[in-house]
Amino acid sequence: MTTEFITRLFVAAILGGIIGLERNYRAKEAGFRTHFLVALGSALFMVISQYGFSDELIAKDNVSLDPSRIASQVVTGIGFIGTGIIIFQKHVVKGLTTAAGLWVTSAIGLACGSGMYAIATAATLFVLLCLEILSVMLEKFGSRNISLTFTTKEKADMGKAIEKLKRDGVKINYYNVKEERTPNGKALKVTMEVKIKRSQYEEKVATFMNELEDIGIENIE
Length: 221
Fold this sequence. Notes:
Helix content is 61%, strand content 21%. It is of the alpha+beta class. The strands form 2 sheets. The protein has a 4-stranded antiparallel beta sheet with strand order 4-5-3-6. Strand 1 and strand 2 (92-94) form a beta hairpin. The termini are far apart.
């Protein structure tokens, strides 16, 4: 029986690691090690939940246990990890897909811990299929949020920059203007969050930097 338990843990770790490799490739917050450990831990909890108290059941006739009680807490516990991945930064929520992937990875680990290898493998394939299709679609049709900081001496130049972004189809989520003193006099520091189509990102940024000579780009991320 011990060999069977080790096999369940091994399969869970491998399937979780495969999803983690995909997340590593996409440079996401949670990668191989996180998914590997989540799947492994979930499988271990399932095995303990099902078989960890069998001696008590044999020794005491009046004792009954719910085999899903410990395993059910994995669903709650994985929420703490997911919360740590999801962040709200500059009006944008990030990490939702990775957090959902960890949630599914824990379910795959539970399935392996129950010996349901076929379902766990199918779920892993579905996850990879979803993530890859999503990545391709986002790359082609999606957009990305960019934080842009630049300085200019004249308000008119700032207005030209904003108008150019709008003409190029760039959506401005918000912008903030702050007056600063520099060795060359006063300057306006503009910080904005813009949304650009992923397929046009490099082109738009290069055009913005080359055509507006009266502004100084400080940061683009």
